Amino acid sequence: MSIIYVLIPIAILFVAIGLCIFFWAVRTKQFDDLEKEGFSILFDEDNKPAAKHPVKESTKPNDH
Amino acid sequence: MTAVPCFHCHEPVLTGSRFTAVLAEQTQHFCCAGCQAVAETIFENGLSDYYQFRTESAVKVSAMPEHLLAELASYDHPDVLADISRQHEQLTEIELSISGMSCAACAWLIEKKLKQQPHISSANINASTQRALIRFDSQTLPLSHILKLINTLGYQASPFVADNEEHVFKQELNRYLKRLAVSGILTMQVMMLAFALYFGEYTGIDTSHEGYLRWISMLLTIPVVVYAAKPFVISAWRSTKARQMNMDVPVTLALYYTFFASSYATVFQTGEVYFESVCMFTFLLQLGKFFEFRARAQAREATSNLLKIMPVTATLVTEQGPQSTSARRLQAGDLILVKAGETLAADGVVHEGTSSVDESMLTGEYRPITKTLGDTVLAGSVNHDGLLTINVTAPLAHSRLGQIIQLQQQTLSQKPKLVEKTDKLAKYFVERLLVIAVLTFLLWYFWWNPDRAFWVTLSVLVATCPCALSLATPTAITCALARLNRRGILIKNAQALETLPDISHIIFDKTGTLTEGKFSVSRVIPLHETQDDAAMLNLIANLERYSEHPIARAFLPYFTQALALDSIQVKIGAGISAYWQGQHIRVGSAAFCEITPVSEAMVYLRIGEQPMAAIQLEDKLRPEVPLLIKTLQQQGYQLGMLTGDHSSQAEYVSNQLHLNFMVKGCSPEQKVAEIQSFIAKGAKVLMLGDGINDSPGFNASHVSVAVHSGTDLSKNQADVVLLQPDIGLVAQLLQGGNTTARVIKQNLGWSVGYNLIIIPLAVAGFVSPYIAVIGMSFSSLLVVSNSLRLLKK
């Protein structure tokens, strides 16, 4: 049973990492709106008529 | 004919095939041009996914009035923009509140549309708070353009500045989340280890293994007691310092006593450990508090969305011609121009022009008042039909409106204190509990068995730890808030809910609260024999179509058939004249029609030389009011009315409804004085109102309710806001208050009763701490599920 001396600290490490991620998520406001994000997966990034505009979507991050 | 639902808003299409469009190779029908335009825009921009994934139909699009669109440009003024936004290097960050959003797909739609714009660097729409956070380049893209863009999708956006309090709420909510996570996740870990220890008890366990598991449990519990339980410690410390002990004192004591006792047991390898109880306890209490806090924060957000900022501008008359300026910069002696439909920006005297002005929001007077040369006018009142030039006598801050707002802030500090009943109970309970715990320790230590003294005291503390007691009220209130919210009653101040069962007096405002706040035809007095009323009203309605005056709207329902009218002339403040079938027709005041006034009639009709009819108008009671008043009277409430209206209509309404008391011609100051005199006599007052003139009274009463059509200011001040145009909801509100009080009483009864039974057993040493923990958890669960019943009703 001496394996628990190794396994439990490892488990605690994972818990600590999990908590850190949760804190980060709260800090970056990921819990502010729980409704919209659930929908985002349903929407396609590009639609046929949107083909006129896709440049704006993809180049945006380079703008600044 | 079965009505096809509108493709955009799902309302039945009553216009046939007038509004159709071919979208994605299919012909779709629309109810109006607005919906059609929005749907076309959505498809053109490649956002048609919206229609596929939305869960709610859209709100019917109402086109933005032209003059409002023009007004948007005033947001682009650098001074105004600086007031409502923040600057991040090159970019301007602004928060908008968006109305018309019905589901998360709406948020996606707006976000997508905005992100297609090259000058918007980021746009984030929050579907639950209905707000948008946008960063854009204000040099190249004016704000008004963004607002119009959102408008093309069928939503109304307006700039919005969250108040300080809201920021604090948000931060607090995040802290709650973190504490919940810490206590929740660590409770799971400690519980897992505790199970190993439980089984070890029965099947035997190595002392070294047991010690190891205990040490780990202790380590994992430290963040819970130090971080997650911190608010309890702070609150307990504060209340002890103020000598007003609250529920957090025994909670803190039980938590820390148990924690230190278990740590002692771990370090010296003796006795029992209860780390899992410490963790679970903290988690349960945090959970209850979190839900209560979140409900309050949501109610707050919902109402502050109502507080939109309109730039208060005025048109200043200068030598170079009319010029737009900020209302705050107006000085006494300035001349301003006020067009029909505009709100007056300052107190003043009419310099030129004649018009009727609506002062009902400030004075409660329901009739528009005719203002002409030399009459005083008030800031905040609305100019109905004429063009007025006003000589400003006082800047906005010193105007009547400014005074009312000041008065309202003064009364806020005098608001009657709502004592939380549970706190009173807590104080009583806590003091006795602490005495019992100390006595138990002393008894066992000196007389019975010094070795067990420490552990018996521990089980007394754990068994009596008022977990259930402190969950009793917040859970019940949270559930009640959610339920009332579903019915269209928004409660901003949860304490108001606890005060509702004690209410003895209900005070109503008249104009806009008991009555509809608009005119309707009450009686037609014929002045000539051969006429039927319907045809005559239709004739009047035809003429009144050309008037902006609120009286004109009273005739709208009587418009049955369009008549061919010639040479129509509108004389402001007097009436309308026209030619119909060769006859000269006049509709308007008695003087305008040259008819001797008939009792209380406000509109007259004259055809040719013949006086035809006199029409009496009234501000009709809301249809649900008589039933509401009757119900409330049966329940034994004292009902009264405080109105700013001087006219005899006040008595008429009061007599019709058999109210217990009525005061007419009240200024806002008098309303406050009346309410305070009732409170001085020991009454608990609920006030219902809509206007700016009611808001000081709101703060003076125990509970205040703003009606659906009320002004932003009154909604912001009130404890309760009705979200539907039905004041019958007040009865439901009171009933909800009573049910909540009953559930709280049951909860308290159970948890106090449980404590009374367990205390003697624990003191006598019959309750091992394990049993104490089970008992505590069981009674907490019972209390929570009892509160959940409130949701279902």
From TrEMBL, chain A:
This is Cytochrome oxidase maturation protein Cbb3. It comes from the Bacteria. Pfam families: FixS. The chain crosses the membrane at residues 6-26. Keywords: Membrane, Transmembrane, Transmembrane helix. It comes from Alishewanella tabrizica.
From TrEMBL, chain B:
Residues 92-158 form the HMA domain. The keyword Transport applies. The keyword Translocase applies. It is found in: Cell membrane. SUPFAM superfamilies: Calcium ATPase, transduction domain A, Calcium ATPase, transmembrane domain M, HAD-like, HMA, heavy metal-associated domain. Keywords: ATP-binding, Cell membrane, Ion transport, Magnesium, Membrane, Metal-binding, Nucleotide-binding, Phosphoprotein, Translocase, Transmembrane, Transmembrane helix, Transport. It comes from the Bacteria. The chain crosses the membrane at residues 180-200, 212-229, 249-267, 273-291, 429-447, 453-482, 748-767. InterPro entries: ATPase-cat-bd, ATPase_P-typ_cyto_dom_N, ATPase_P-typ_P_site, ATPase_P-typ_TM_dom_sf, ATPase_P-typ_transduc_dom_A_sf, ATPase_P-type_domA, HAD-like_sf, HAD_sf. It holds the Pfam family E1-E2_ATPase. It is a multi-pass membrane protein. Belongs to the cation transport ATPase (P-type) (TC 3.A.3) family. Type IB subfamily. PANTHER family: ATP7, ISOFORM B, CATION-TRANSPORTING P-TYPE ATPASE-RELATED. This is Copper-translocating P-type ATPase. It comes from Alishewanella tabrizica.
